[in-house]
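User: quick one, sequence for these tokens?
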């Protein structure tokens, strides 16, 4: 599962070194070529697989750096984590042109977390890019989900000795090793989605070395783990209604109610028979997932893309031969073949290492049934059983309790379907020294830079550049 190196890792007290070099690994390395063209330098830091046994096996954690564009104004390092879990971080240094003032003052650093990207090749043998499926309408369809979760867990068993060390706590220790390797007394940080949890764990464990931390679209720190999405169904349903009310959905119906009625009919049809979409099928396990992934972004372009998906599925439900759009084709290829970046394949070990899951399938089914009336479409998706129920390893440590007064800035959207606002507030309460900015009247995941909102972007950059933390929580619109 990882690039495990036989040599002895540095001790926790020793300062590791970065082995810097060019980013391209040879012909065909598209990311490396882009990083080289952007002026990045790449390297590795050797860290222990188990930081509590610093002289045991080690792995190489990969990172990229673009230096501050104004060395005279440089104030330090800004580590950027895009979330996931399971998403590589090295390419985040390519954000440098999109935040020119921040890049004047900071070296932008992207780190591939342990066992992700160039910090180890995952060996979870899946023929899908995600475990996320709806449980479907009944006990028989739930049994199909249970069988899939068991197969996916078995596909990760080859590295059972490494799996306990995929946790966020170990990744936070890696991040502090990177800090020391860079020769920095403190680091600043920009984390999105799961990256907010990594940032919060770092603040809890290494707060003395934290400078200015920005957490965008924060997760509920007490929910991080296999059941991370368990309470998301109402937020997803609200985001779906918001989309159904948008101009992009008008070709599907004259108002939101008619569009949502169309989607309900699609869900019922998919329960009766799979919809044929090109070379793939869409059944009652997959349809809610396709809708959920289409709601992360509420730009007109993204909303139109989801409308195209729904139109295609509706045509397929009526027996028409359809060809999926590139977006839908990529999603279906990932689900049916495992093609694409597949962050869930590398992210699932992190979820399972952060918190133990119930091994009782019946507990998940009872939970789904208890909420089916109020969460008919998305509850069976977000409350479904996961591979962690059958995981071949147990967490090496208990979950981290987040409760620290260290300052941080939390920003997020009111209607975020992936990290709902209630979870963002929970992170704000746990980080007692934090301030929170809420982007109102939008249903999207990710706000800084991604939302194009001057109010949010200015607040983030004032904090990172000038250290100006808002005196009170406030809203942006």
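Assistant:
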């Amino acid at each position: 599962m990882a690039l495990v190196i036989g040599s002895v890792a540095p001790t926790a007290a020793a300062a590791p070194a970065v082995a810097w070099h060019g980013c391209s690994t040879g012909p065909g390395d598209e990311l490396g070529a882009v990083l080289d063209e952007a002026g990045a330098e790449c390297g590795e830091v050797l860290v222990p697989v188990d930081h509590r046994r610093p002289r045991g096996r080690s792995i190489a954690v990969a990172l990229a750096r673009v230096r501050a564009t104004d060395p005279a104004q440089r104030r330090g390092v800004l580590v950027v984590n895009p979330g996931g879990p399971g998403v590589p971080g090295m390419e985040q240094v390519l954000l440098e042109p999109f935040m020119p003032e921040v890049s004047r003052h900071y070296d932008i650093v992207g780190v591939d977390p342990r066992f992700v990207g160039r910090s180890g090749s995952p060996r979870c043998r899946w023929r899908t890019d995600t475990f996320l499926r709806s449980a479907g309408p009944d006990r028989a369809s739930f049994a199909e989900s249970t069988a899939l979760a068991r197969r996916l867990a078995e596909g990760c068993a080859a590295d059972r000795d490494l799996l306990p060390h995929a946790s966020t706590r170990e990744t936070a220790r890696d991040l502090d090793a990177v800090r020391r390797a860079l020769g920095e007394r403190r680091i600043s940080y920009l984390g999105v989605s799961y990256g907010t949890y990594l940032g919060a764990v770092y603040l809890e464990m290494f707060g003395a070395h934290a400078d200015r931390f920005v957490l965008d679209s924060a997760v509920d720190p007490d929910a991080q783990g296999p059941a991370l999405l368990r309470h998301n169904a109402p937020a997803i349903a609200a985001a779906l209604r918001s989309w159904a009310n948008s101009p992009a959905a008008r070709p599907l119906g004259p108002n939101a109610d008619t569009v949502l009625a169309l989607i309900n009919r699609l869900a019922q049809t998919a329960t009766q028979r799979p919809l044929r979409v090109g070379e793939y099928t869409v059944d009652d396990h997959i349809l809610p997932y396709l809708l959920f992934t289409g709601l992360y972004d509420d730009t007109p372009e993204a909303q139109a893309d989801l409308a195209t998906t729904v139109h295609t599925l509706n045509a397929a439900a009526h027996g028409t031969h359809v060809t999926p759009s590139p977006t839908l084709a990529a999603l279906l290829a990932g689900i049916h073949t495992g093609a694409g970046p597949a962050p869930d394949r590398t992210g699932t070990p992190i979820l399972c290492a952060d918190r133990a899951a119930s091994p009782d399938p019946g507990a998940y089914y009872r939970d789904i049934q208890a909420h089916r009336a109020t969460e008919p479409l998305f509850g069976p998706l977000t409350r479904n059983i996961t591979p962690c129920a059958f995981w071949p390893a147990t967490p090496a440590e208990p979950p981290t309790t987040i409760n620290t007064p260290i300052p941080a800035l939390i920003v997020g959207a009111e209607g975020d379907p992936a990290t709902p606002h209630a979870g963002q507030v929970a992170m704000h309460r746990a980080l007692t020294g934090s301030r929170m900015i809420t982007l109102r009247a939008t249903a999207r995941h990710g706000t800084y830079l991604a939302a194009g909102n001057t109010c949010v972007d200015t607040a983030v950059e004032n904090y990172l550049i000038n250290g100006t933390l808002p005196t009170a929580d406030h809203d942006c619109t």
